[in-house]
Design brief:
Chain lengths: 209, 209, 209, 209
DNA sequence: AATGAATGAGCTTTCATTCAT
DNA sequence: AATGAATGAAAGCTCATTCAT
């Protein structure tokens, strides 16, 4: 019925998809509105009808990406028996998801110019959310006697950083290949670092080339 | 005696100093040549007399910063008896140095837009250098029986990420305060994560508010 | 009826017209985009919306001018009975057209800095086109026995130069006045130079002050 | 005795020589003072000690070149018996000299942006001088009955243009090769164009590959 | 005579945003 | 909802010229 121009999606969605591509390739400030609308098959006016500014548009994009990502992570954690099983599973889920969606990783992890302006902090939230998630499970693990008491805020932050860096290297150099091959090493290191025995949490793992 | 004003230094240095300030606040692409020269008390022509481009100027700045930083880290490592003592000391040195030079941390750690362009990779080397440094000591530690065999490349990368993230949080939120209070926790976590007993390497540490 | 002000035409055309004025006065490299848009009543952004660069804009301008000029010349040649009548007519047409459009002459004939860069060769084609045109007729004239065999490439080039120089003097000094008064002299000289009798080709000529 | 830095010439001369090279390659406005002094082995201050401005420096250069050129032409004319022999000889001398000094031709003939500013007219004088020279001989030839009365100003101008164009083509395309092969054709065409019989003036000519 | 750091107006080009249709 | 021409501030960079030494 409708004269679906480019694909049969809304202009709003097509802009967000095009923006993902362009930001993944060029970065936030390298991504021009012009290029985005060209890829989206939209017009300048259309862009500014749907979004008040380039900035808000990226916020919407990051928001959407974060939500999908966190949903996957939380889904993976849901089926696990203990707090540490859940943290282990979350690391796996994160690695697996980014490995499967390179562009999401590029958009979410490659743009850090977190200066004064609120503008730039927009790429940080996912890291904080993931950190909060680990922190919660860590507290539960300590309460359950799975790990000794420790600075959970700091430790969870550290592990977000570790995961981030490994993915970053993969984005920039392609190593390790596949990315998921790093997962068991990271999980074991994590568990040891918090004073827990890795053995019980890793038995089920297997990765494919 | 006198409170050395700007005019005491060479134009070259004043530009680099002003650039540090501006990039720390606004990031690489947010830092305009105009603003830098205004802060430096120089002119456009003078800027381009000393540097062929904004890009090369930042390269010179990052180079200079990296060298000073690595010198401090290597100096701190030099006095240590074993490989793991050296890694522990390097983490301490890094944290201490960044804590004392907030702007250096901002310039070096807050600019990651590694998208294709050579331009942006300019801020990565320090991380790679630090990673290589840890990796070397880790290999020595394994050879010396201080730690079990493991993927040293991955592990060193992870720890660079962990340290980076902790400093990043400190830059953006001010936590933990002081930054150096996180050092012993990180050192212990690191040592446990590689399968070493933290006890022998941490006795001498004390931090001041 | 109304004295069509600037606003009657498209921005694209107004820019091209303004550029004609400015380049006629200041030359290609002396013509600033700023000055052009001011005269055109347009904005910087508008200029670069319509043209990808100053260079491409000048190419479009020269192209348009050349086409109009060659059309007039070819039209004048069309009604002529023999090759030499056509050459004679083409010289007349060229002189008449330039005399009536001083600025076109200034833009097309006053910019010669043919140094390597493709940029500068942009102003040469008209001369080459006109030369090719004469050459063709010359060959026909020789084939028809109107003139003895000779180096047509060289001869046509020479005559383009001769015409160019006469117009150039007129542009710079105002002599001869009117420019068209030089036409019969040039035509006769041309015909004699190629070994033809001027008489049959010049009878109909008359010029007005 | 003296510490002859670059060559054993004066700075003044070295600047002028370097300017010849740079202007020949890049044209007047493409020739930067910086590049000239680098080639000359001089300094900015030195340049402005010897010349009040880039413009005046080019004037001095053109002046010097023109003088040398005209001297050669006049020398070639000196040994000739009649006015038309002299014109014929002057064309030969001009072609020969330019063929032997490509850079001089490039500087003198390739820069024509003769607009409002006095600046740009600086490359015109040689053409005018040469034109005046031909004109004088033409008048003498007419007075001597070697040629019929005609518009000597216009005719001499035309022939300067013709010669200019032929050399220009040679500069830009390399044709004809050698340049001097065009000389007899031009001389004959010239003589015929003014109503004189070429035969008596061309017998002695021979050119070498 | 000579040096080279410094100047600043000027250049072309980019880009998020606006607005009449 | 959508269009695309128009805007103008700001960007990085160039260059003839000046001046203290």
């Amino acid at each position: 019925m409708s004269k679906a121009t480019a694909r049969d999606t809304t202009t709003y969605d097509r802009i967000l998809e095009a923006a993902t591509d362009v930001i993944a390739q060029q970065g936030y400030s390298g991504a021009g509105v012009q290029e985005i609308i060209e890829k989206a098959g939209a017009s300048k006016g259309s862009f500014y009808f749907h979004f008040p500014s380039k900035e808000k548009m990226v916020e919407a994009l990051v928001q959407r990406m974060s939500e999908k990502l966190m949903a996957k992570v939380e889904e993976a954690m849901a089926g696990q028996p203990t707090p540490l099983h859940r943290v282990t599973a979350s690391i796996d889920a994160l690695m697996t998801t980014f490995a499967g969606q390179r562009k999401v990783a590029q958009v979410l992890l490659l743009n850090i110019i977190g200066h004064g302006r609120a503008t730039d902090r927009k790429f940080l939230p996912i890291r904080q959310q993931f950190s909060a998630l680990i922190q919660k499970e860590l507290e539960a693990a300590i309460a359950a006697g799975q790990a000794p008491p420790q600075d959970v805020v700091l430790v969870s932050q550290m592990w977000v950083g570790a995961v981030h860096e490994v993915i970053l290297r993969w984005l920039l150099t392609g190593q390790p290949s596949p990315l998921s091959s790093a997962t068991p090493v990271m999980q074991a290191a994590f568990l040891r670092s918090i004073g827990a025995d890795p053995a019980p949490y890793l038995t089920s793992h297997r990765h494919k080339a």
